Amino acid sequence: xxxxxxxxxxxxxxxxxxxxxxxxxxxxxxxxxxxxxxxxxxxxxxxxxxxxxxxxxxxxxxxxxxxxxxxxxxxxxxxxxxxxxxxxxxxxxxxxxxxxxxxxxxxxxxxxxxxxxxxxxxxxxxxxxxxxxxxxxxxxxxxxxxxxxxxxxxxxxx
Length: 158
Description:
By secondary structure, this protein is α+β, with helices and mostly antiparallel strands. Helices cover 41% and strands 26% of the residues. The protein has 5 helices and 6 strands. The chain has helices spanning 4-18, 69-81, 83-86, 113-136, 145-153; strands at residues 22-26, 31-37, 42-49, 54-62, 90-93, 100-107. The longest helix is centred in the C-terminal third of the chain and has 24 residues, at 113-136. It is globular.
């Protein structure tokens, strides 16, 4: 079974390939914060669940303009139903701040540093694409995020 030390080692090995700025590990909660890009300040949170054998990923993708909130919520629900096209990625919304969050999970069964690096890279690309869509505001002229981010995030499941 893969544990905290194993994931920490994989992240250290994957770091140079991903151009990681910083990795903060919290052993008590079996979680990590991975700062991927100094320019965009993108941070991916990872949490290990050894009982389920999964590594959960999340990152903020932003807040749409207020006038586009209803459209964005509708598209987020449609995105969540398109699990085949999105590789199982989901969009949620933080209760307190109202920020939208991209969520994903990986099986730890065959996870290694190379696979983890590929998954983190695909996750970061998908979150950047969705963040750009959210910042612009989703409307009738904007395709749903599943169509926009589907190719990037398709390989997120292991």
